[in-house]
Design goal:
Radius of gyration: 17 Å
Structural class: alpha/beta
Shape: globular
Number of helices: 8
Largest sheet: 7 strands, parallel
Oligomer: single chain
Order of helices and strands: EEEHEHEHEHHEHHEHE
Length: 230
């Protein structure tokens, strides 16, 4: 079981449900603040193979110094570097290849639904779903070109709007080749047992590990048991 330390790039989330209300404006932390967390996580690593870090919070490609932060993680000796992203920026220019070349080996893609119309409506960003699919594909292609092993996993922030189509979302992740999906309740939302059972059944048949409160015996994601949040 691989653990990751969560390093917050700032406030906010890569993709949120606007049907629940407009989110607060995202903000980014300084590179010095993020760098200090990276150093602390790497030097204090005790969670098995690693150190491994996951950049979370606002869309990572919105941070003006993301390349330098990835480089800092590599210099700190981090074996695995992960980005939690809405995927849209991965489809732009050489971002996918650049991230792979810089040392990112794991993408945690955020989806709110399993189809373009619903996802884009909830995210209030037309075209985001198709861009995310293209971005994940570009990242996989870049890894094949570089002959580097990579992983794609999924992340679903659970509210009453995203829960309704959870099974379809899990299947969308499976089509992308995701190996695991984490569901994380928003504001204490509780997933209906019938929805959880259906999503877990779909994940199992598709060979995807589904984790999170209400859908499996595990309340934490298997990829991120160690956290360094601030």
């Amino acid at each position: 079981m691989i653990a990751f330390a969560h390093i917050a790039l700032g406030s906010g989330s890569a993709a949120t449900c606007h049907a629940c209300g407009a989110p607060d404006a995202a903000s980014v932390r300084t590179s010095a603040q993020v760098g200090a967390d990276i150093s602390a996580a790497a030097s204090g690593w005790t969670a098995g193979p690693g150190p491994n870090i996951s950049f979370v919070g606002p869309e990572p490609f919105s941070h003006p110094e993301l390349p330098q932060l990835i480089a800092a993680a590599a210099l700190a000796g981090c074996e695995r570097i992960r980005l939690r992203t809405d995927g849209g920026a991965l489809a732009v220019g050489g971002n996918a290849a650049g991230a792979c070349q810089a040392g990112v080996r794991h993408i945690e893609l955020v989806l709110l639904a399993g189809d373009a119309a619903t996802h884009d409506k909830l995210a209030a960003r037309p075209g985001l779903y198709d861009a995310a699919m293209a971005g994940a594909g570009a990242f996989s292609a870049a890894a094949r070109t570089a002959a580097e092993p990579i992983a794609i996993t999924g992340f679903v922030p659970l509210c009453r709007h995203t829960a309704a189509g959870l099974t379809a979302t899990v299947l969308a992740f499976a089509r992308l080749g995701a190996v695991a999906v984490l569901v994380e309740p928003v504001d204490g939302y509780e997933l209906a047992p019938a929805i959880a059972a259906d999503a877990l059944r779909a994940a199992t048949v598709s060979g995807v590990a589904l984790h999170g409160p209400g859908v499996s015996p595990f309340s934490a994601e298997p990829w991120s048991l160690a956290r360094a949040e601030s």
